[in-house]
Amino acid sequence: MPIPRDFPDSPEQAGTMDDLGFDGPHFVTPWWPEAGRDVPAAPPAPLLPPPRATPHRPGDTTDLTDEIARLARTAHHVMLQALGEWILEGTSRPLPPRAEDSVLPGPLAVLEAGEAALTQLTGQVPTAVRTTVTWHHDLPPHTTGLRARATGSGPAPGACAWAVHHEGRLIAEAAGTTGPTAQEPGRALPEYPRRFRPLARTTRPHVDASDLALLAAGRAAEVFGPSFGLPGDRPAPAGPAGFRLLDEVTFSGLRAGRYRQGHLTATTRPGARAGWPSLLEAAWQALQVHALRLGLHLCLPAPRFHPWNGEATGIDVPDTTRLGGPLTLEADIVSVGLVPRPHVVADVRVLDGSHLVARLHGVGTVLREEPGAAIGPREPAHTLRHTTGGEPTYTHELHLAHAAEGDLGVTYGPSGTSSQRIRPRPPRGDMLMVDRMLTAPYRQGEYPTGVTYTTEYDVPDDAWYLEENAGTAPNLFYLETSIQAAAFAGAATGAGLEHPRENLTTRNLEGQACLLRAVDLRGRTVRQHTTLLAHTPLPGAVLQRYGYELMLGDEVFYRGQTVHGFFTEPVLAQQQGMDAGRLVPPWLHRRETPPATARVLDLDGGPRPGRGRLDFLAGAAAELVPDGGTHGAGYLLCTKPVRADDWYFAQHFLHEPVMPGSCGVEMLFQMVKAFLFHTGAITEGRLHALTPHPGAELRWTYRGQILPHHRQVQAEVHLRDVRREAGRLVARADGSVWRDGLRVYAVENIALQDDSDHRTRVTA
């Protein structure tokens, strides 16, 4: 008989008799009420309905048969619950409470309970283990009521399984076999693995036994630095067993390892208990140390570590007798994230000296707040998350992560929840360029102009947009971090909650901005000041204009204004492009005959301004006219297909993929660079020295969007002039972007300079 999983809390959660621990496909669904109907916990006192006040008539919707069926369904549900509890009570093995588990039982207690039940059933301890452990709920608050049950039945010889319940709730279960060792499972590596940014920075690459003792005592700030401390000197979390199975942990780079998400090596203490449950506990402890080093504990109130239940954990131990001595754990981090809660998942190789003795696949730990604790935005006076300068925040990384790809109720509170699938969200993953909001909104649903909101963004030392742009910040960065901060401020004040019964999305419409000075961003915190200048409600839409500044320390280095629209789907569908719905072709295609100087370029055969995700000219067909364009100073037209799997569609936005306008603008910047190179104005060595020109005001207008189902993108640039200023080459141009023949972007005053002496370049 299969092991019973959770007995349903309501009939709607049950499907078949097999789901309740019975053999056979005996469907009981017809007995359950329809979804959404309440069912009493026990049958009502009268066994028959009360007499009717009026005699029954044909067509009466309160037919006696319906009422009898309702009572029968209720009685059936209650009987099955009682029967299931009786089965579980009679077949499970209670676990006696242990002193070390009196506060919160560790996962080791759950695993050992299951293994003890299995040993009692089979009468032997296996010498080889290949099993899968699945966690269904967080650790219970105590061991009282913890029960384990094992079965030897299964589809393969030697198959075995166990399940551990706490007060009737399934906590964890394991299923496996003592058969031959399986091949190491593989994982697909994405083309651009997500780069998780730690919530605090440290330079500590190693922790020893004394550091682990400090971490077990909750003193993370003494190990990794002051920014890892919690307000009020509250202790940092540690697992129920502390870190007593470990001797030391060494960390490699955040982009190291098989999956480029990080790598760590841990050694277990001599004399640690043998057996795969203790091995798995040691792996959990190592990942918990890594979670603390990433600062994951900084965004939750009084968090506790639990086993990750996002995927099953595979355990493969060919010879359990080799698990007794000190072991080395080599963990390749698979993923780190904040949704639904801060977590670390890894694949682990276990070695005894140079010999591989075990593999653990999908080991994970997650931090969760205490039950009932509030995790939403807080007034700064009561927040737990502070900036590196010690200032309290209103929203922080957890809220922004949920705003991008999680539960909007976490970000905006109960009013943020909506039955509509599409709501305003910031970009996801590596495109998210705002971290914290320091200013609490005025009052949700009120939009006083002149109010300034302060947000922050931590630029990584190895930011992908710097690496893929030869070490300098592309214009894409300046646009994204500023307009994301403005859009989030607008959404936080309540604009994103307008029209709650309709899908609502946000789009940037236009703006102008100026880079005041070039800055070295690596490892710095950018502070964004966003001021609401205007709020205009319209039928099916809300328009907001913002002014903004980007700062490093006390110095402003970027300033601009922008307009965002919050649109219902019918209103957004009315966008007609830049030319009132007319299909106006690019300048070159409006010529009756091609200019005599026009030529085709092979962009793929030579150097390009960007690489990786920033290589917007890859696969583009290019036509150049050295003396063409509206200003007669030069012209370049590029045409490329739209691919539904282009990287930005997965990042921008959840449930509504769209090409960011910043990508189209960046493509125009790169086209100016390509024009200068292919006309001989600069050499290949100078190509990556071209940077946005400080002091030049960029202006953009968006009147349409590029979606995955569109076929083609075209972009053109018209050179205004190319000249020397203060000994530097400076080029200015205007540009436009089309999709499937409709012009949707217009950009003015694209300005670049030859910044050959810049010192922020990263060697490719």
Automatic annotation (TrEMBL):
<dbReference type="InterPro" id="IPR029069">
    <property type="entry name" value="HotDog_dom_sf"/>
</dbReference>
<dbReference type="Pfam" id="PF07977">
    <property type="entry name" value="FabA"/>
</dbReference>
<feature type="compositionally biased region" description="Pro residues">
    <location>
        <begin position="41"/>
        <end position="53"/>
    </location>
</feature>
<dbReference type="InterPro" id="IPR013114">
    <property type="entry name" value="FabA_FabZ"/>
</dbReference>
<feature type="region of interest" description="Disordered">
    <location>
        <begin position="32"/>
        <end position="61"/>
    </location>
</feature>
<protein>
    <submittedName>
        <fullName>3-hydroxymyristoyl/3-hydroxydecanoyl-(Acyl carrier protein) dehydratase</fullName>
    </submittedName>
</protein>
